[in-house]
Amino acid sequence: MHAAAVSATDVLLRTGGHAVRMPDRQPPFVPGMDAAGIIDQLGPEVDGRLWVGQRVIAMVLFVGPHGGAYAEQVVVPAASVVPAPKDADFPAASTVLMNALTARLALDELSLSPGDTVAVTGAAGAVGGYAVELARSDGLSVIADAAERDVDLVRGFGADRVVERGPEVAAGIRALVPEGVRGVVDGSLQTAELLPALTDGGTLVELRGWSGPAERGIRVRPLMVTAGMEDTAKLDALRRQVDDGTLTLRVAEVLPAEEAATAHRLVEAGGLRGRVVLDFS
Length: 281
Description:
The protein is an alpha/beta fold. It is 26% helix and 22% strand.
């Protein structure tokens, strides 16, 4: 392990939010879902796609028997490992998979067609930013939210139109699309506040398990990134989209591994424009 990105999911584990998924686990609990490093050993059934000494990135299941990515060595299924982006250092490389995969799964759930309009909230954040970039790459028209200081950032990701972040974001979307949009990716975790932005029969993708209720035929789809952790093709496609410039890696701060507590405080404080990374090199 050379680098592990710190996320809100890690904070949720530390504060007990994932206890329901780990009823039989005993301490220590090791956070971390995003890893970057060098392959040290391969299992006997791993094919020639991976090799010892290769620079790679991986998704790590912290609820698994080996724990998460905050470690000097991790053991993961080969299916969760892909080559590192070619021009990224380890801290930057560690920031892509979990958030970009979440955004990819969210857009896939919406099943929109090129030319359709999608709304993305929390667009200045890690998942939201990737959702904007991937939506543009998919040929979608993107409405995104942003605070005043983040408007240029969000436009830089590829948002066609920007509405003011906050409790009135749904009204702002409706002002731009009076009939409502067909799909919303809720990166701001506003849940029911966003339902008025949707047209009848539209779809709202939720990242923290909220499943409704909703009226007017609106579908609410809770999303778990673990569903795609061993989808090697999807993971490698995201890595290639870093290489071709579709996806932008953003590092807010790199800290020594022993300063994990400080990293968690930074994430909890919010307002970051990029990921905090722990250096295990």
